[in-house]
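Worked example 2:
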Amino acid sequence: MKPDLQLTSLHRPANPAAGEPWLLVLMHGVGSNEADLFGLAPAVPAQFHVLSFRAPNVLGPGAYAWFEFGVRPTGERVINEAQEAASRTQLGTDIASAARQLGVPAGRVVVGGFSQGGIMSLSLLLTQPALMLGAMVLHSRLLPQVLALQAPADALRGKKLWVSHGLQDNVIPLASAHQIRSHVAALPLDLHYAEFASLHEIRPDELREAMAWLDGLTQGLAHD
């Protein structure tokens, strides 16, 4: 049964035959919608419920954002901080509610996103780690605004983080992924970092490796 949540979403149920259920929450990039990353659902390991959320801020027909932003002549990005905070709060509430309704403990929840959705995934992991086991961050960046809200290091201990980026990403530069890697190096979490010969896109090799990482999380828990 699809969870009853505030944010609009699409849901692919876990396969009961695959064992104890997990939950993968997906968040799209700016200007897209919940159908975008839901297209990845066939590649996601069968034991995962896949829940793809629609961001709450409307940009146009079928186009949504977790927060609006602008770029200064210097290249600096300026975000609507109130929208980001509201989205992050609502996501936290809905992720907890979805996990509860689906009978999935926080230790089997993974949040993931592409571009702006990846920003939200990383922000949720750093600020509300109790909600999840880990995050999957694709072609994204770290928001300076969340650093002051970061959970204590002990709360991040043992959390899992996937970060991948395109070597030729023409929207969010590769340096942004390097910044994430540098920031989390000082944290007691498990980072898997990967770069791919791609633009601002998810190519088959990246998707394949990311799904293998997800599958490895389920096997790692089973072996504990």
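The chain has a mean pLDDT of 95. The longest helix spans residues 81-102.
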